[in-house]
Amino acid sequence: MRHDPHFSHQTDLPLDKQILNVSVNMARLSEWVADSYISHKSLIDIFIGQTENYLNDLSDQNISEGFKPTLKRFQMEFEKLKSEVEDEKNRLYWAERALTWANILQHRAKLA
Amino acid sequence: MIIILTKKATEEQIKKMCYEFGSYIKVVVDIKKEILAGGATMHYDEEQMLLEYGCKQDNLWGGGIDFATGTIDYNSMINVRPNQENSSRDILSQEIRDKFKIVVEKLLL
């Protein structure tokens, strides 16, 4: 089977880039949930699903000991965010939490 | 725990502020008074504390510092201020970013 160079997988990337992809997703999700949840609902669902896949991919890889606590903490927070994303009363709080983790992951990607 | 810093933080204060996110602190900086509030889960709460302290909204900007990597970010929901020509959650003005960084470094690093 020929490997198509136009379709690389997340796990083809170095670990820090994989983490940055998660970070960027969280920033996107934060913006959409805060500003335009209804019009972006389908995208929000897609990107939550993609982020979940990214996290599953990470769990099979050789993460540095320095980064593991951050990843574990984020995985716990992500599960909460996933379950609370449809709560319309707390959208801004959800968005802030997502943005906070986008920032933390961006800072710490190089530790992965 | 939210702490308002008007001078360099002690180790104990930093430890308390790190409670929420383990070595990452969300901060709101008054770039004019050169003080900051840090340690909350939400920038909004830090902003409110500084407003009660006598700060003016226009001088308050949000971001974070990660002690694990020594890096500073300039992202916060409170930074969206069209009337100050900041339409992003990121602090767009290089001048304000520089002032923000100076205060964070002075009080936390």
Task: Outline the structure in words.
The complex is a heterodimer of chains A (112) and B (109). Chain A has 112 residues and is mainly alpha-helical. Chain A is 67% helix and 0% strand. Chain A has four helices and no strands. Chain A starts with 14 loop residues before the first helix and ends with a helix. Chain B has 109 residues and is of the alpha+beta class. Chain B contains three helices and five strands; from the N terminus they run βαββαββα. A five-stranded antiparallel sheet of chain B has the order 1-3-2-4-5, with helices on both faces. The model of chain B has no long low-confidence stretch (mean pLDDT 95). At the A-B interface, helix 1, helix 3 and helix 4 of A face loops of B.
Offer a few descriptive terms:
heterodimer; A: 112 residues; mainly alpha; 4 helices; 0% strand; B: 109 residues; alpha+beta; 5 strands; 30% helix; 22% strand
SSE arrangement:
The complex is a heterodimer of chains A (112) and B (109).
Chain A: H1 15-35, H2 41-59, H3 68-84, H4 91-108
Chain B: E1 3-5, H1 11-17, E2 24-30, E3 35-38, H2 43-53, E4 60-66, E5 71-73, H3 94-108
Antiparallel strand pairs in B: 1-3, 2-3, 2-4, 4-5
| Structure classification of chain B | alpha+beta
Question: Uncertain regions of chain A: pLDDT < 50 for 5+ in a row?
Answer: none
Number of helices of chain B: 3
Q: How many helical elements of chain A?
A: 4
The low-pLDDT segments of chain B are none
What structural category do the secondary elements of chain A indicate?
mainly alpha
Order of helices and strands of chain A: HHHH
The main β sheet of chain A shows up as:
none
Order of neighbouring strands in the sheet with most strands of chain B: 1-3-2-4-5
Q: Return the string of H and E elements of chain B.
A: EHEEHEEH
The average pLDDT of chain A is 91
Q: What is the percentage of strand-forming residues of chain A?
A: under 5%
Tally of extended strands of chain A? 0
Rg of chain A, rounded, reads 15 Å
What is the rounded distance between the termini of chain A?
31 Å
Instruction: Classify the helix fraction of chain B into a percent range.
Output: 25-40%
Q: How much β-strand is present in the residues of chain B?
A: 15-25%
Shape of chain B: globular
Largest interface: A-B, 23 and 18 residues
Helix amount of chain A: 55-70%
**Oligomer description:** heterodimer
